[in-house]
């Protein structure tokens, strides 16, 4: 029987264009994957876009109302091209582009922060990272389009891997982009260097936006270039917010009899951690202020969490077993 597009949008068959638009607006905002993290929200968002793509197009809607989804796929009654209604229908649209076009590039959530509408918008951007240098960070919303004005292309998203050492101290990265620009009514390729400033303690997922630095296309507002901070895997530490975790492997003898362990740190020499207590499996200890800066208060640092893993011997001699049996309670 195919998909029930009216049911997907929560409206009755024969709904008016205005009712279809209102239903799409409500459902798209509810299930947008940047706002709804529930399992299945992304697939629901795609279904909503597909339903709107059909019901908002008068020719598609006419065929669908008469013959359903199967009729769309077959091009109308009588099989492929049977009634001259057009080519077979197959939804290949980008749900994010449909969303962006519907809202005219503005921020439908009304937030003052940045809102990821996803997708690269078909821009042929090329990025390369250069050596660090001076510069200043730039923030901005990717939207800004107004109804009746040139619509803005969707943001061009680019992951930027940053080491924990860079997050600790802060740094700048120079990113070279190649984009299309308009000159004398013609498009040409241009290289440009964007300086990305990364502040101390910034978390993975932080967005840095360069407004309207994307491809320049006729009658379109260039896309924003958005860099998304991602933690680069570290050979020794795992990040947990402003804390970092280090796994220290010790022997059973050390766990029972005490030890001194040189714990590595991010910004200095190893810390000699001395322990005289019995260390049980899954024991944790904290080195206060040895983690990463708090992004809101860079002078305040998180902790370095030491997680002890005890390595048990694989076998014991009979004599060793007798001695342990006599010693242990």
From TrEMBL:
Its main location: other. One of its GO terms (biological process) is protein folding. It is found in: Cell projection, Cilium, Flagellum. Coiled coil: none annotated. Residues 4-68 form the J domain. Homodimer. Component of the axonemal radial spoke complex 1 (RS1), at least composed of spoke head proteins RSPH1, RSPH3, RSPH9 and the cilia-specific component RSPH4A or sperm-specific component RSPH6A, spoke stalk proteins RSPH14, DNAJB13, DYDC1, ROPN1L and NME5, and the anchor protein IQUB. Interacts with SUN5. Interacts with IQUB. This is DnaJ homolog subfamily B member 13. It comes from Caenorhabditis angaria.
